[in-house]
Amino acid sequence: MLQINLIPPKFQEKIRNKRVRGALLESSIFSIIIIVIVIIGIFLLNGSFNLLKNDIEDQIKSQEEKTKGFSKLEKQIINYQENSELYDEALKNQYNWSEVIIHVSEITPDNLQITKLNIKDSSEKDSTDTKAVDFTGKASSRRDIAKFVKKLQDSETFDQIELTSSSLDNEGKADFKITAVLIK
Q: Which residues sit opposite 121 in a β-bridge?
């Protein structure tokens, strides 16, 4: 096939230049549109990322506030455990006074009356929590006092029993004072 161009050569170059300019204009406009779309996309993504970042920061702050409550609770639990240990330790060093008094009443002879029971810290230097017990009372005879001292010595509740004073009154009854150390 044969093509014949009937357009004069002067106009042919103008037409060719127009076509080249049109193609350049089209590709420039297309490039500008692509660049604008990319810029708009970047702004939209940046906004989305900022929203996500703010949301995550808010969640972190909320979790930090919740954990502050947990750390306060944890401190309270530790404090409770320490106090519980102190309480248990204090209980170990306590005497069961009801048992001591019941034991004394069981070993007291019938003809002996305890008129005063004095409990004080022991004078022993090596033991800080030992208690000394002073028994003051009356007995119908010194033999009853001796029986009571013997029962105290045989007891697993008392140690270092000492008859500190004993005297007879006008009626022939014996007054006494006995000191003993309470064993845990």
A: 131
Residue with tokens 């004394």: 104
Given the candidates 3.40.50.300, 3.40.630.10, 3.30.980.50, 3.50.50.60, the CATH classification of the domain at 97-182 is 3.30.980.50
CA-CA distance, 97 to 26, in Å (whole number)?
108
Nearest partner of 136 among 168, 164, 114, judged by Cα: 114
Of the two residues 116 and 4, the one the predictor is more confident about is: 116
Rg for the chain, CA atoms, rounded? 53
Domain boundaries, the chain: 10-92, 97-182
User: What would the pLDDT profile of 124-169 be if each residue is shown by its tens digit?
Assistant: 555 556 788 999 999 998 899 999 999 999 998 899 999 888 888 8
- What pLDDT sits at residue 124? 55
Which positions ≥6 away from 131 have C-beta within 8 Å?
A: 95, 119, 120, 121, 122, 181, 182
Is pLDDT larger for residue 30 or for residue 172?
Answer: 30
